[in-house]
From TrEMBL:
Superkingdom of the source species: Eukaryota
GO MF entry, a single one: hydrolase activity
Keyword flag ATP-binding: no
Keywords, sorted A to Z: Hydrolase
Gene3D superfamilies the UniProt entry points to: alpha/beta hydrolase
Source organism of the structure: Pagrus pagrus
Record domain Carboxylesterase type B: where: 3-145
Pfam families: COesterase (PF00135)
Database matches in InterPro entries: AB_hydrolase_fold, CarbesteraseB, Carboxylesterase_B_AS, Neuroligin/BSAL
Keyword Disulfide bond: no
UniProt-recorded name of the protein: Carboxylic ester hydrolase
Similarity section: Belongs to the type-B carboxylesterase/lipase family.
Amino acid sequence: HLYDGQEVADRGDVIVVTLGYRVGTLGFLSTGDSEIPGNFGLWDQQAAIAWVHRNIRSFGGDPDNITIFGESAGGASVSFQTLTPHNKGLIKRAISQSGVALCPWGINHNPRRLAEEIALKVHCPTDETMAACLKMTDPALLTLAGSLSIASSPDNPVVNNLALS
């Protein structure tokens, strides 16, 4: 319950909403092209932000007074969420603690290489059939492959595939 929000809700006149999103390989794996564009974790977050905006009034909240907050990788996610036009009008404030979108560790600079490393770990080819093979691979195996020692992290978004415009 590290991020349950109880302390913040008890001390302030706020409603705390926490969300879950895909992380690791399932959240951020990308081939660097349209085959597996990546950033699924960021899209999950954006969908949650839109849901909160649509529904927060039912919980006594104000849809025009939404603050998003994240720490470390979550801080980088907050930063990315403020950059995308898909959240225009949905967020009033953002708090990014110990991480922003352009932190060196926050961006996957070579998504294809990481995808190839994961493909090899799950016995997929690294040719033009790689994406199709990865899509058919057991998600548990993909998750495990992404958590093993690799050159980059599968938790890092791909900036050139992030819908910023």
